Amino acid sequence: MLLQVRNVTKRFGGLTAVDDVSFDVPAGHIKAIIGPNGAGKSTLFHLISGYHPATRGTLTFEGAEITHLPMHEIARRGIARTFQTTSLFSHQTVLDNATMGYRMHAATNVFDALLRTPRARREETESREAAYEALRFAGIAPLANRIAGSIPQEAQKRLAIAIAVAAKPKLVLLDEPVAGVTSEETVEHAELIRHMANEGYTICLVEHKMTLVMGLADSIVVLHHGKKIAEGTPAEISADPAVIEAYLGAATHA
Amino acid sequence: MHLFFQELLNGLVVGSLYALVALGLALVYGTMQIPNFAHGHLYMLGAYVAFFGVTVAHVGYWPAMLLAIVVLALVGVVLERLVFRPLRNAPEVNTIIAAVGVLFFLQTLAQVWFGGDYRVFPTPYDKVVHFAGLVATQQQLIVIAAAAVLMVALFWFLKRTLTGATIEAVAQNRAGAALVGIDPNRVSMMVFAISAGLAAAAATLIASISLISPSMGFTVILKAFAIIVLGGMGSVPGAIIGAYILAFAESFGGTYISSNYQDAIAFGVLVLILTFKPTGLFAKGT
Q1: Residue B139 CA: distances (Å) to CA of B44, B55, B126
Q2: Could you give the count of Cα atoms lying within 13 Å of B142 in the half-sphere of its Cβ?
Q3: How far is B176 from chain A (nearest CA, A)?
């Protein structure tokens, strides 16, 4: 099992955002996490990536516990994530953004950089190549020299994936990969995600667009008010009364 | 016309000093949003370390500068680790007060260790150079050249190397940098080391033109803050341009208007520029 989430709970003051959630992500799987707004999906991602520490429960990645590791250490273990809010370093070029994804694989330190050691030069070449490869993978290589903040929304979403791929991770967490993207582009995005899975990346995604989720996911976890209310294949989930109730309930209150 | 070029030269010397000090301040502010009021006192400490290197250890001018840079880089790292990192998530005012605390700590330390006297920093480069009717000391020319070399090196490091790029990454998105596996705390330490090291280099360069004393940090920190406000908070190119603008305003204002009003003229220019460009010359977009 690549990732094991066990009884994970997150409280912010009196609010329990994630409540005793457990599930597994097997290697090579596409796992979707769905639920109405405020269900705790993004918080769950924050816990896995180490952005917030879990209040209770354990996270195990490749058999080692990662619950209380700092973010950069979790990233180095092989978990990459994308943000809902588009690109990471919006004032840098697209290529530089992707290069940052690969940065953690370089051992170069400040002295290597200043002394132009062979290692520094080799790693700079390697990281450029890895970045270009990731941009080609995501289909945005022609935009390499544009400033990340200035490219279209959909391309920024692709860049987020390129940054994640450049890090050569084992698990990619995609936080609403098609939010704010047109329905045509959503289809292309789904292909890209499918392509990632075929290339051997394990994927965990949070998404509202059910068409995307149902078409892509191997299995789905449904959260409601922080609790896991269902887990299963897309067919099982769409027939689950508790899920229908949660979504319809949320709709009537909205 | 002759006077004009002489003042241009003087402005370049002072501007080079300001630029090196303001750069370090801008780098720390731009990366961590820490207004390091103790920066001028790191500069002061750098001057004393170099002074010790030249007068007590007799290692020579350039090795003494290197010593000052290394010692101050370490002081910068310690400062980040012990003072500023624990305040990372505290309200900004706590960080400001801590920086002021460090300022007074260093000032007192210097007073106790070195005494309050002004000291003359000996330089091997005190010969006067004449060219095209202009007069400069070798040391003044060294200040201009060394500052230019350091600035180019810093730019190249920030823009062209992987390690330098991590600084930019942390500056733009601290959490995002951690997400791609960059340890923001390590970057913070590196930035403080570079910042304090630059201050030490500036101090060693200029100390042999002016005098050194435990309070020498006060004047320079005021100017440096004015410069980074002028340049756009946290902007590296802004700090450099701002430094030369302030220095030229001082030297030309002092010559052509009145030397009594030198600082008033310089800060008048600052106010004027901020009136038209309130966010500074190179404001970082957010």
Answers
A1: 19, 17, 6
A2: 21
A3: 6
What does the pLDDT look like over A121-137, one tens digit per residue?
888 888 889 999 999 99
DSSP A230: E
The alpha-carbon gap from B228 to the nearest alpha carbon of chain A, in Å, equals: 20
Candidates A50, A90, A113; nearest CB to B164: A113
Of A71, A106, A127, the CB nearest to B179: A71
Note the pLDDT of residue A251. Answer: 54
Q: Which of B157, B182, B285 is closest, CB to CB, to A114?
A: B157
Residue B71: what residue type?
Answer: V
Are A175 and A73 part of one and the same domain?
A: yes
The average pLDDT across A11-26 equals 93
- For residue A253, the domain's CATH number is 3.40.50.300
Average confidence (pLDDT) over A13-32: 93
The CA-CA-CA angle for residues A183, A184, A185, to 5°, reads 90
Q: Residues A58, A177: one domain? A: yes
CA distance B182 to A167: 11
Same domain, A175 and A249: yes
Task: Kindly state the greatest CA–CA separation across chain B.
Answer: 59
Do A100 and A209 belong to one domain?
A: no
Position B141 scores a pLDDT of: 92
* Min Cα separation A199/chain B (Å): 20
Instruction: Please state, rounded to an integer, the average pLDDT across all residues of chain B.
Output: 90
Tokens found for residue A113: 């950089």
Confidence band of A119 (pLDDT split at 50, 70, 90): confident
pLDDT per position as a tens digit, B246-257? 999 988 888 888
CB B228 within 8 A of CB B243: no
Average pLDDT rounded to a whole number, residues B238-245: 93
Least confident of A64-78, A134-148, A170-184: A170-184
